[in-house]
Amino acid sequence: MITLVKDLNEANGITHNGTMHDDEVFATAFLSLYFGDFKVARVSEVPKDISTNAIVYDIGKGKFDHHQNDARIRDNGIKYSSFGLLFEEYGIKYLKKLKIKNVKEVYNYFVKDFIEAIDAIDNGIFPEIKSLHKVKIVGDLIKLFNPSYGSDDTEDEQFIKAVEFAKIMFIEELKNVVGKVEASKKVKTILKKTKGSILILDEYLPYQETLLSSPYGEKIKFAIYPSNRGGYGIKTIPISTTDKTSRVYFPKEWGGLTSDDLEKVTGIKGSLFCHANRFLMTARDLDTAIKLAEIAIELNEQQ
């Protein structure tokens, strides 16, 4: 847990006060998870004559700040924020402390999947989102914790709430990454053994990223897996990680149909559902799922 303190000599960590942002909030959440009980002082500036063993971050222009002219930048052009700098320093140790398998793979995936985005946004690089409405990103969610106009909330109270929220997100993201890394190894093995253009999984695994990055995945048109609603799901495969157009679609006349209506048009008992956009179907059993995928491959319909 974190405790906010006023005396810098009591603090384990020192960061800036005022408006909170996702980098120092997630940095504090991570430090709290890594060290356990963690005392934080929020200040407007760090005294020049300070003598402390506290970790100073996102302020003070030291090792864990990113506001100085010579702040560190990754090879891919993304500048570090305090969160990225601290995870680079303590991340591997934290994962080992948790006894996580595949530490290096999990570390690298977590940085790419989560930390680099927060670092980029905090340094003024925002994703282009084409939408008719405002889409909130992680930084927007953290900003919600800043005291609202007219409220009686204090900055420190809201900071603690934001950090607790960030800890939940951090933990869930890490669990997700650990699962994906483990699943990826299984998917690679199955892909190598797959002869045709249908990937068949005997359990649901996050497969798409691995498939699209593997030369063994270039031939795959559909993935079939047990559905958490019962039966089997059949899903099209996109052209690439950047082009989400499906390599093959289900036939136009199947789109939007269910149960009896779908069975009539497919001619196959056990056809349950076809999404209106023709990228997803469900079937009662594996044999039915394979038959539906084979028909779609033979017809080779495009968008």
How would you characterize the overall build of this protein?
The chain is α/β, with parallel strands linked by helices. The chain folds into two domains: 2-180, no CATH class; 194-299, no CATH class. 41% of the residues lie in helices and 12% in strands. The strands form two sheets. A five-stranded mixed beta sheet has the order 5-6-7-9-8. Strands 1-3-2-4 form a four-stranded parallel beta sheet, with helices on one face. Helix 1 (22-35) links the parallel strand 2 (13-16) and strand 3 (38-43). Helix 1 (22-35) packs across helix 5 (155-193) and helix 2 runs antiparallel to helix 3 (103-122). The protein is elongated.
Quick synopsis:
With 303 residues, the protein is of the alpha/beta class. The chain contains 8 helices and 9 strands.
Sequence-ordered SSE layout with sheet pairings:
Elements: E1 2-4, E2 13-16, H1 22-35, E3 38-43, E4 55-56, H2 82-97, H3 103-122, H4 138-143, H5 155-193, E5 198-200, H6 208-213, E6 222-226, E7 232-236, H7 259-266, E8 271-274, E9 280-283, H8 286-299
Parallel strand pairs: 1-3, 2-3, 2-4, 5-6
Antiparallel strand pairs: 6-7, 7-9, 8-9
Helix pairs in contact: 1-2, 1-5, 2-3, 3-5
Percent of sequence in beta strands = 5-15%
> Biggest sheet, in brief?
5 strands, mixed
User: Which stretches are low in confidence, meaning pLDDT under 50 for 5 or more residues running?
Assistant: none
Helix content: 40-55%
List how many beta strands DSSP finds. Answer: 9
